[in-house]
Design a protein that fits this description.
This protein is an alpha+beta fold. The chain contains eleven helices and twelve strands. Strands 3-2-1-4-5 form a five-stranded mixed sheet, with helices on both faces. Strand 9 and strand 10 form a beta hairpin. Helix 2 packs across helix 3. The longest helix has 21 residues. The protein is elongated, with a radius of gyration of 34 Å.
Length: 387
């Protein structure tokens, strides 16, 4: 029984008791009205209706009348048909975002109730234990989150999704698929943020081996011996912060829960099976719509981002020290890279050089500040000019 029906039945029972006591002269009209929590004049109106039409005269006639705001049957049928044809299995919130994009004007609650009434979606279970969330940083650029998620984003393919987002607004600045998460993919996410917005204050991530060195499994990170990623952030004067539990990264964990629920369905709907197509879909469709729906207002006006004037390409890369062999070659990642003769010296035998691996997989060999040679990802010489 609905609440309105229950209240009406209760009002009928109370009136019959008050009416009987008034007829038996045990109560005055004023006392009977107080029992019903109405005024004396209203009680007299109840008496007239009861004596004329019986108990049915006290019923609220609006309950048997269809609301003028009730949606037409054909609109409900169109909604159910649309869900069944192209969105079967989607959760209500995800479907509602597409419903609004296509011109739908009804509220989220109305859409949810219609789909639940027709048993197209199930009611969700109650939420778990309450946890107090960490307050967001007040301005954009004060803290940036980054994380990766391995998932079957398209049928038969497990890729890593790398997301770099703002703590203050939940806005996703960088989002792309790679075969496997690592140093270069993390550096790429940072570069895309700085190119779009500028330098930020702090970087928040898990204790992955490409972010931190952890001497003991599950222990504290080593802030003295930095990884290639840590060295790059230190060079940019960005504070690096480690999270010690999934709950500490709750903001990014919840975002990935949404991505894992929505992205596979959208990629399937778009007929995408290749990583290049998926990355284009992210940039052209999914990322703008996600930010539009989930971006929140920062606590304070302004921004903590500041412009960067240097060369990000030279900073956000991997750097390794090597000693040149007797054949004037440098060994790196199982390959041999020849250093050609130049105008500075004939050979570099037994000289310590720096090998830089860039985001585009090219390899540069440096002696001090001078670049000696550069090779592409296939190992072909692409430059022989000192920079």
């Amino acid at each position: 029984m609905k609440r309105t029906e229950f209240l009406q039945e209760l009002r009928k029972m109370k009136f019959e008791i008050a009416y009987g006591d008034w007829k038996a002269k045990r109560l005055t009209q004023s006392e009977a009205a107080q029992l019903l929590n109405v005024c004396e004049r209203t009680f007299r109106r109840y008496i007239d209706r009861y004596e004329e039409d019986g108990i049915e005269g006290l019923l609220d006639q609006r309950m048997n009348r269809a609301s003028h705001r009730c949606a037409p049957v054909d609109e409900v049928m169109r909604l159910e048909e649309k869900y069944c044809q192209g969105f079967k299995g989607w959760n209500v919130k995800h479907f509602y975002s597409w419903y609004r994009r296509s011109g739908g004007s009804r509220s989220y609650t109305w859409v949810k109730n219609r789909l639940q009434d027709s048993q197209l979606v199930q009611k969700s279970k109650g939420k778990g234990k309450h946890r107090k969330r960490r307050p967001r940083t007040p301005m954009p650029g004060m803290m940036i989150h980054q994380d990766g998620s391995t998932h079957q984003w398209v049928c038969g393919h497990y890729w890593d999704l790398i997301v770099t987002m703002d703590d203050a607004t939940n806005e996703h600045y960088s989002m792309f698929f790679v075969e496997q998460e690592g140093t270069l993919s993390s550096l790429r996410g940072v570069m895309e943020v700085i190119e779009k917005k500028g330098l930020f204050c702090s970087f928040y991530s898990d204790r992955g081996s490409h972010y931190w060195q952890t001497p003991e499994a599950g222990g504290k990170v080593d802030k003295e011996h930095l990884t290639q990623f840590g060295r790059a952030l230190k060079q940019l004067d960005i504070q690096q912060i480690a999270a010690y539990s999934p709950q500490a990264r709750g903001r990014s964990e919840r975002a990935f829960g949404t991505h894992q629920e929505r992205l596979p369905k959208e990629l399937k709907k778009a007929g995408i099976t290749k990583m290049e197509e998926a990355n284009r879909y992210l940039q052209d469709h999914y990322l703008p719509e996600f930010n539009k729906e989930f971006r929140v207002q920062a606590g304070e006006k302004g921004t903590a981002f500041i412009p960067y004037e240097g060369s990000l390409f030279e900073v956000l890369c991997e750097r390794y020290e090597r000693v040149v062999g007797k054949d004037n070659c440098v060994q790196f990642e199982g390959r041999s890279f020849q250093i050609p003769a130049n105008r500075y010296r004939m050979n570099y035998v037994k000289v310590r050089v720096e090998v830089r691996k860039y985001l585009d997989q090219t390899i540069g060999i440096y002696h001090g500040p001078r670049r000696l040679v550069c090779y592409d990802r296939a190992g072909r010489l692409i430059e022989n000019v000192a920079a």
